[in-house]
Amino acid sequence: MKRNWQIFWHIFIWISIIAFFLFIVHSNTKMTTERMLVIFVLYGAINISLFYINYLLFIPQFLNKKRYGVYITAIVITIIAYGVAKYGVGLFFKGDILMRSMGPKDAKHELIGFWSYFMSTLITSVIFIFLSVVLKFSIDWFLNERIQRDLENQRLSAELAFLKSQINPHFLFNSLNSIYSLAYQQSENTPGAILKLSEIMRYMLYECNDNKVDLSKELQYLQNYIDLQKIRFGDKAYIDFKVDGQVTDQQIVPLLLIAFIENAFKHGIANDALTPIRMLISVDKEHLHFFVQNKKHNNNRDAIGGIGLHNVKRRLDLLYPGKYNLEVRDEIDTYTCELSLVL
Fold first, then answer.
1. Residue 338 confidence (pLDDT)
2. Which helix (H) or strand (E) holds 293?
3. Which residue, among 64, 48, 60, 53, has the nearest Cα to 10 in the 3D structure?
């Protein structure tokens, strides 16, 4: 179907060009209808055939394969052959009429000599050859650009899928460790923790397949994760999690903020009432600001970040280019991340 449309547009454009020149010449010269039809329709068809011989045969077979000598030879021979053929057509269709100069209706039209007529046909042939080369290379350039864009998009999609796939095992490993600790302690919170993990996994497996998800669902996912951590720490958990602003129909890339929160629990101190883990999210219609801060373990000061933070930075570069600002402050006792994002 696509090829049929291409053929249609080629035919339509050529017919439009020929009709335009027929109208211009008919309006400005006293050329007979027969002469106009032969020159613009018959000669036009001959020149168009030359155009497509070069476009469909010579360029793909010779020029694209860097057989430049063969290509130039083929072009020269073909142009000369077409020039002779056009002269023969001119003689066949009343050469004394066709081989006169064109001009205004009241001008005197003199006979054109063989070489002048022959050279004019050569110039016309060269123009059609040139046009076919320009069209062919323009189309090939645009097609190549589209292929390169498609390949780049496929590469980025594959990279994003890989980055996203890293999140699930990492998160699952940490959560199962937490539940294992609860089960080992025979904590009554174990069933609740398993339920929270089930809700989290359902979200990750079934609702995170799109490029973006509702911000409300992502925030609920974060809340479930924090609740799971609170169950693990019990009464000793000091966590300040707050969302300011009205969450309506905003959307966000899924699993984007979890790495910061995971790092806060992994490397931070959650059982200090004086320095709780602080996680604040403020949103409006088009922006999100995320702030997370935790006190660092003395034996973990050089282990902050890791794969998770590198992962989220790369995802931000790919999915929010020029639309985010990430500031990380790794101080002596505290670790702070601030992310501003255009949704």
1. 92
2. strand 287-295
3. 48
Beta strands in 30-112 (DSSP E): none
Mean pLDDT of the chain: 76
As a whole number, mean pLDDT of residues 274-285 equals 89
3-state secondary structure of 304: coil
Residue-wise pLDDT for 77-133, tens only, equals: 888 888 777 777 766 665 544 555 444 444 444 555 566 667 777 888 888 888 888
pLDDT band at 280 (very low <50, low <70, confident <90, very high): very high
Residue tagged 């000669």 (tokens): 43
Backbone angles phi, psi at 147, to 5 degrees: -65, -40
228-239 mean pLDDT:
76
Instruction: Classify residue 194 by burial, with Cβ atoms within 10 Å: 0-12, 13-18, 19+.
Output: middle
One-letter amino acid at 212 equals: K
Helix (H) or strand (E) holding 133: helix 114-184
Measured between alpha carbons, how far is 162 from 148 in angstroms, rounded to an integer?
21
Strands 239-244 and 251-252: unpaired
At 224, phi and psi to the nearest 5? -65, -40
Q: What does the block give as tokens for 39?
A: 């020159």
CA 154 – CA 175 distance, rounded (Å):
32
Distance CA 72, CA 58 (A): 9
* CATH of the structural domain 187-342, one choice from 3.10.20.310, 3.30.565.10, 3.20.20.10, 1.10.357.140: 3.30.565.10
- All CATH 3.30.565.10 domain ranges of the chain, comma separated, are 187-342
